[in-house]
Structures are given as C-alpha cells and as structure tokens.
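Notes, p. 3: input format for complexes.
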Amino acid sequence: MILPIYLYGQPVLRKVAEDITPDYPQLKELIENMFETMHHADGIGLAAPQIGLAIRLVVVDLDVLSDDYPEYKDFSRVYINAHIIETSDETESMEEGCLSLPGIHEKVVRPSRIHVKYLDENFVEHDEWVDGFLARAMQHEFDHLEGKVFADRLSLLRRQMNKGKLLDLAKGKVSCTYKTKRVLR
Ligand code: NI
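Output follows (185 residues plus nickel (II) ion):
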C-alpha cells in the first residue's frame, strides 16, 4: 500500500524517533509499505517519520545506482534502531534531495565514513563501518530519526537562497507526483 509522504512543515519530521521492539504491530507489512511508497516516489531511502511515525525504522534501496556502482546491485536494506556511533574526520560534499522536500537539491558536506549500529528486519544486530554512497544515504536517513532534514545542514547562504522554497513547502504550496501529507494554510 502506498502511504502519503509527510512534507517539510509537518511536526513529526522534527521529532526524535524512538527505538522499537520485534512485537511492534504489523511491522512486516509496514516495511513492505515503506518500500512500495519509496519506489513509487522514485526515492532511494525513506525514514518512518516521513510516513508519520516517529520510530527508528529506515528502508534503503540503492539498486537504481548499480549502473555506476555495481556493488549496489539489488542492494535493498532495512535499518531498525539505527544509531551512528562515530564518524570519520574526512568529509565530502554531495548533492542531496529528499522526498519530504520536493524541488530542493543542494550539496551537503558530511563525513565520508561512519560507524553504525543497527538491527536488520530479523532483529539481528549489525556493527559496521560504512563508506561511499551508502554512508551518505544512511546519514541522510538517520538524520530524519533525529528530527533533522538536510536543509538544516546547508550553509547560511544556501539556506537563504532556498528560503522561499522552504516557506512554500511549509505552507503546502508545492506540486508533487506522489501522494503527500502537507500543511494546508
Ligand atoms: Ni530525506
């Protein structure tokens, strides 16, 4: 089932998300719905707050990048209760977009490598260092779990440049190809 994606301005995107347990109601179905919602909107990552739930659940599918990055062929993952433990000093700048902020694409500086702990869909624990595009996608998605969006990480100048678009978004004034939940004023 395709779920509406909550747009910038919705309070749930500003909440710190909570860990979940294996008995979370209809978790398997929720994960399936998140993948379906993300694919329908041509996204490569989706965090639960973006569908209105302040829980630490993220889905990522990088297969669409596999022409350029063969290591991401069929790379589809679920991250539960994810936490970033440490990050590299080395950083890189990469363009990002977000299904909750349609129409905004900006370069964001982030650490190149991250040490993460999370559970997969079977609640098996993982503890690993991640780099490359996946490290980027994880950091973007895990920010959503802390109530942050990528626009918060722009320089003052770039934020000023996008001020009008962000204001329109927060007022629900944006056109979008997928189903959304937005503030209507
Ligand atoms: Ni996002």
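Residues 45 and 60 are 4 Å apart (CA to CA).
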